[in-house]
Specification:
This protein is mainly alpha-helical. It contains five helices and no strands.
Length: 84
């Protein structure tokens, strides 16, 4: 697991601002877990022996999959804001 610290709040309203793909994926896995993430976004790297490293490799090569991950992250952040 990565020991990266979360980004500092910025004036940008974009939840992806300052976030690396690894940070986004790690937060999604912490929130949903691999089984649920694989159910939501049906890609092999989330459902068969998932790891951050293998998933990052796939996501960096497939923009359509990265788009799904980024959209889910934005939805997760938005839902968290409405809960508070």
């Amino acid at each position: 697991m990565s020991t990266q610290t979360p980004p500092k709040p910025s004036s940008s309203k974009d939840p992806l601002h300052g976030m690396t793909l690894e940070m986004i994926l790690t937060r999604l896995v912490e929130h949903y877990g691999w089984p649920e993430l694989g159910r939501i976004i049906e890609i092999k790297c989330f459902n068969e022996n998932p790891t951050i490293k293998s998933s990052l490799t796939f996501l960096r090569r497939n923009q359509w999959a990265r788009d799904h991950v980024e959209t889910l992250f934005k939805e997760m952040v938005s839902a968290a804001k409405t809960e508070t």
